[in-house]
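re: ur question from earlier - yeah i can do the single chain one, its not a big deal. heres the input i used so u can compare w yours
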Amino acid sequence: MNKKDLIESLQSQGLPKFIIEAFASVPREDFVPENMKQYAYEDTPLPIGNGQTISQPYTIAFMLSLLDLEKIRNKKIKILEIGSGSGYVLALLSEICLKAQIHGVEIKEVLIERSKKLLSRYNNLMIINKSGFSGLPDFAPYDRILISASAPNLEIIEKIANQLKNTGILIAPVQNSIFQIKKHNENLENKEFPGFIFVPLVDEWANYLFFSN
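and the output i got, formated as tokens:
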């Protein structure tokens, strides 16, 4: 499958146009290891080293669609991604939300060093090298939170969801399901979408690393 095939496949799933356009703009081959580049546009997860993967394009697109960004993507919003890995989803978010302040959390320092170089053209990103189990309260509250690795239980996700603004949305995998959590005042409403596979969220602390263009 080449890039054109992948874009057509995503279009056939009825995903929002602005998400499709972001996938067309960001070269996925830049975010995978050299020996994986020939598979960059297969609709499948790929290993990126250190026991981590870059998620299946359809899964990423589906999670982005659940964030419900269309009405707010041209506003000065704040977004957090936990488990930013190669930086591919951060790049997609930056393409979609040009005015957003976007924070990424990644525990693997080597992945941050790689993504730092790949994302240097974006001036609205900050990546922090730490565990994502407690979210990122220093910069809360967020309009949207995306967790790109699987949490062991819903309780952890709901604690992180408290860092949302009122009417904010969190999307996260818990084991083999994706959950959409919406915050209304102090109440959390969740909806489950089963049938997905993710690498687990890692719990370990490291140092802060910041970058901007």
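The two ends are 33 Å apart (CA to CA). not sure if urs matches, ping me
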